[in-house]
Amino acid sequence: MQDVKNIGEYKDHIHEALDNEFQRSAIDKFAQAYPVGRAKAFDGMDVRELVAEIAAAKDEAISRMGELYEQFKREAEKAGIHVHLAKNAGEANEMIANIAKKTGCKKIVKSKSMTAEETLLNHHLEGEGLEVTETDLGEWIIQMRHEGPSHMVMPAIHLSRDQVAGLFSQVTGKDQTNDIEKLVKVARRELRQKFVEADMGISGANFAIAESASIGLVTNEGNARLVTTLPRVHVALCGLDKLVPTLHDALRVLRALPRNATGQIMTSYGTWIHGPNEDNAAPGGKKEMHIVFLDNGRTALAEDPDFRQVLRCIRCGACANVCPVYRMVGGHEYGHIYIGAIGLILTYFFHGRDKAKHLVLNCINCQACKAVCAAGIDLPSLIKRVYARIVDETGHDLDSTLLSMVMRNRKLFHGLLRAGRFAQKPFGVKKGEKQKGQFIRHLPMMFSKQHAFRELPAVADKPFRDIFPKIQPKVENPRYTVAIFGGCAQDFLYPEQLEGMVNAFADKGVAVDFPMQQTCCGLPLMMMGERKTEKEVASQNIHAIDPAKYDYIVCSCPSCASHLKHYPEIFGSGDSDGLLADRFADKIIDISSFLNDVLEMTEDDFETGGPKATYHAPCHLCRGLDVHDAPREIMTKSGLEYVPCKEEEVCCGFGGSYSVKFPEISQQILKNKLDNIEATGAEMIITDCPGCVMQIRGGMAKRGSNVVVRHMTEVLAERRKK
Q1: Alpha helices in 358-438 (DSSP H)
Q2: How many H helices and E strands in the chain?
Q3: Smallest Cα–Cα separation from 214: which of 274, 301, 259, 146?
Q4: H-helix or E-strand containing 506?
């Protein structure tokens, strides 16, 4: 459970996590195996359609949450079930403790429940003098270690078999081997007596079906069935968001839950409970059954137009499975109680701003969580919105305030970027010996220690906006008229990438324009919570580049393109610029898709016999824009010998300002990427994003690698037949 007081303390925790080699190795192995298992489990299914169905059904249930609760309560009472509604975590804990007192229960066995973790139920019950035992293996292990889960589905993934053996040796008073099968037998032996002695069983619920007042439990261990059947009192603690109208709605989610969680087609156990069953040891011959529904902010969330989609979450944990940051630091540093991307959001609403304010900074915005979410939740966007709310509530810091002031004034912003050419002179500029690029010879003292893992680029002698008037092609009767959206990095750091774009269009009937009033896309402002200025900058761009004048607005920075595509969400339907933003976004296209799919360039356009090259897929291209095939196809057409790279669509660790805030995490993610690239034996690594070029080229230069890093436009322009 993450509970730090300031950002410095949080970073200290992160350093410790990065030093935990076993944890990183264990999570890394699972992260590499997970996509393969998930794809196999979903084989033959229309995943997008299923996700859309789940999202629509969950949205409908969320809009009727109060109504579904009342229906569930009516049907439950007919079946002899006691139903309670707790406003908050404390009230839920009190209710369950009072049930134990009234029924004379002293010993409690629990099945895994994230809702019980949310309320810190065990702490409260133990404070009331009750004996509480977790019975799922992972939960029992972390209970004995007095720590929270590090994953919503695999709570003890961060621990080695040796650590568990040592723990079990302490518990049993006997030396235990680290053999996993034997350790499982020890756990069964120790827990068996707990089941026999227990008065009360506490479970969670994956589903609460309103039409029948039934609950559903999905598990891989049989302990949940023992917890819900053996003790004479059963209490289920369940969030209001688990309410669904019918069994059909639950089964729809069940098609996705195990597949998305662990790559299983079905879990070992699926248990459906409707009312108290027979129990000869209980008064009246029947168990006593209670269901405690927890609100804890869920009703308010359901009424929030920005965040209500969070309640769609089916608790599969997939957002952690694919997160490059979670992969580096583990769940204890990437969540408070709820883990992963969803945890960064839920922490704010369930446990407060102070618990969330440092966690939300640690999102690299790679979009992997959004791409894998079984309920279609736009997790990265919501994390940034949480951050923006926190900034609005606590005050904007000096860095973001200054950035906001500068970026709302395009001339001032561009003037400062131009001045960077002179400001870098005290630090020197050098040519990359093996990489085609310029680097700062040595970093400013404030950056030299933390950012020494990569070389940083120098500001170009001339920005692209000064070069373009001299290279703008004259095209009569063009097939297409396009505007180039340059972005800050390519305009002022890598103008050669935009020159490459113009040259790649040569003789293809493309009239090219570069509207000079364009400015930054606004993504850095979103990342820093400056939403007001983000909107002002967006307004400047949609007025600077009139979408009516162009067939396409071509962008060779996917981060920019993805953000530009989201401009309609910034303005909203009622805004005066909303319609213009819609038209603007519709014209945005990435360079690879334009060359491959629109211009339909072929092998005849390029030289043959190119070098062996591999590819890195920028996060905002493959996930933000959902472009996968076009870059690889155009690379192959250009005569390059394309060699696939391991984890091509995994983040390189850049994330814009993220690599400045968390350089140690960025460094480790980059190391994995560079190792995978070099393992291909390719002479060249190609990517479509200037930020990825900066990160990967800087890393390759630092390690003295012979692998040359190039932007797609540069390579294609060079390989065009003259």
Answers
A1: 368-372, 379-394, 398-407, 410-423
A2: 37, 20
A3: 274
A4: none
Q: Give 145's contacts (C-beta < 8 A, 6+ positions apart).
A: 159, 167
Residue 385 and residue 306: Cα distance in Å, rounded?
A: 8
For residues 630 and 648, give the distance between their C-alpha atoms in angstroms, rounded to a whole number: 14
Q: How far apart are CA 294 and CA 311, in angstroms?
A: 13
**pLDDT given for residue 604 in this prediction:** 95
CB 86 within 8 A of CB 350: no
* Distance separating alpha carbons of residues 342 and 320, to the nearest angstrom: 9
pLDDT of residue 453: 86
Paired with 221 in beta bridges are none
For 202-231, b/e burial (b = at least 16 CB within 10 A) is: bbbbbbbbbebbbbbbbbbbebbbbbbebb
Inter-CA distances, 132 with 90, 101, 194, 272, 409, Å: 17, 14, 9, 24, 60
Q: Share the mean pLDDT of the chain.
A: 93
Question: Which residue segments constitute the domains of the chain, with CATH numbers given?
Answer: 63-299 (3.40.50.10420), 603-719 (3.40.50.1860)
Rounded CA-CA distance 164/30 in Å is 19
CA atoms of 481 and 504, how far apart (whole Å) = 15
Q: What is the mean pLDDT of residues 608-617?
A: 96
- The predicted structure's pLDDT at residue 584: 97
**For range 314-326, the mean pLDDT:** 96
What is residue 286's DSSP assignment?
B
704: left (phi over 0), alpha (psi -120 to 50) or beta: left
**Rounded Cα gap, residues 542 and 546, in angstroms:** 6
pLDDT (average), residues 657-676:
94
Neighbour-count burial for 373-409, b at 16+ CB within 10 Å, e otherwise: bbbbbbbbbbbbbbbbbbbeeeebeeebeebbebbbe
Residues 503-555 have pLDDT tens digits of 998 889 999 999 999 999 999 999 999 999 999 999 999 999 999 999 999 99
How far, in Å, CA of 467 to CA of 233, rounded? 77
